[in-house]
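Please fill in the sequence for the structure shown.

STRUCTURE ENCODING:
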């Protein structure tokens, strides 16, 4: 493929164009396969996030409609709905903290929105290390938080029998629990995405062959007359290099769509949009006082210090099940 080529009675180093054309077919195939794999993973990831945004809204809207229809409008009933709203929102917020951990380095239990009993429940405890079967990292422990908050959400739904004046019908309760299941389907899909990287051999071979291909392109054009076609050669070399390397760099950018880069998904902003919808729904159903109550819990602005401790801000929290039993 590489050898001496005679140009204008002079022997120069060049590459056989036909051999390089065959190599281009292989490189193009690898690039297309790489891009298709990356876009498929990107769309799959975005689909899982969309499921969680959707089910967060659906769960609370359904819960409010079903309980208000049964005339559950006392203070105790409003507190039950507020607790369900808060726990559902922090569950979504903890998911975002986990998927953005690589860029933010903020553990899921250190997010500002967590406070009260929920914060105590999901914070690392000695039992985590007692029953650990392998070395735990902060990222791995963060992945446990959404599952724990999901348990609290299910616990709140199941407590409607004792906390609502008129309990939910069995099929209504199953409907709410099914919505939580759908949310967790999105979360487990995201864990699959985070724990299954793109096939490294494919990435390695594609990147290696692309670099070899583009760096050997000039030798192919040495076979032509370099004096009269230099401008045309430079343009073609630029376009081919830009195309192949551009697609590879685009694939690298889409491999990890979370973080602070301009092309990354702004998950926090999307989540806040869902939270705003929920605040408005609470305002229209249970009144501005309950909406403000949930808003204050979600914006208590607890800050994490460098040593991992927390500086509490303004808090207004619901009673934990243990505290309710004491009362």
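FILLED IN BY: designer on duty
SEQUENCE:
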């Amino acid at each position: 493929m590489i050898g001496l080529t005679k140009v204008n009675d002079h022997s120069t180093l060049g590459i056989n164009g036909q051999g390089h054309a065959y190599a281009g077919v292989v490189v193009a195939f690898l690039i297309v396969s790489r891009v298709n794999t990356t876009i498929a993973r990107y769309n799959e990831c975005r689909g899982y996030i969309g499921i969680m945004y959707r089910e967060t809204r659906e769960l609370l809207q359904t819960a409010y409609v079903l309980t208000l229809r049964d005339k559950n409008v006392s203070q105790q009933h409003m507190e039950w709905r507020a607790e369900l709203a808060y726990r559902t929102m922090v569950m979504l917020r903890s998911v975002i903290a986990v998927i953005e951990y690589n860029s933010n380095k903020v553990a899921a239990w250190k997010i500002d929105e967590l406070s009260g009993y929920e914060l105590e429940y999901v914070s690392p405890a000695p039992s985590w290390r007692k029953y650990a079967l392998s070395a735990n990292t902060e990222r791995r422990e963060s992945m446990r938080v959404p599952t724990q908050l999901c348990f609290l959400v299910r616990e709140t739904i199941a407590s409607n029998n004792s906390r609502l004046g008129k309990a939910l019908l069995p099929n209504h309760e199953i409907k709410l629990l099914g919505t939580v299941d759908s949310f967790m389907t999105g979360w487990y899909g995201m864990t699959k995405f985070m724990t299954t990287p793109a096939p490294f051999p494919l990435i390695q071979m594609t990147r290696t062959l692309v670099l070899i291909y583009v760096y050997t392109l000039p030798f192919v054009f040495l076979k032509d007359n370099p004096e009269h076609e230099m401008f045309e050669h430079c343009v073609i070399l630029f376009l081919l290099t830009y195309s192949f390397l551009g697609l590879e760099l685009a694939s690298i950018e889409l491999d990890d769509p979370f973080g602070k880069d301009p092309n990354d998904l702004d998950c926090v902003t999307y989540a806040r949009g869902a939270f705003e919808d929920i605040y408005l729904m609470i305002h229209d159903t249970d009144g501005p006082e309950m909406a403000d109550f949930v808003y204050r819990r979600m914006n208590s602005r607890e800050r994490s210090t460098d040593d991992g401790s927390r500086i509490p801000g303004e808090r207004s929290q619901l009673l934990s099940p243990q505290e309710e039993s004491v009362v």
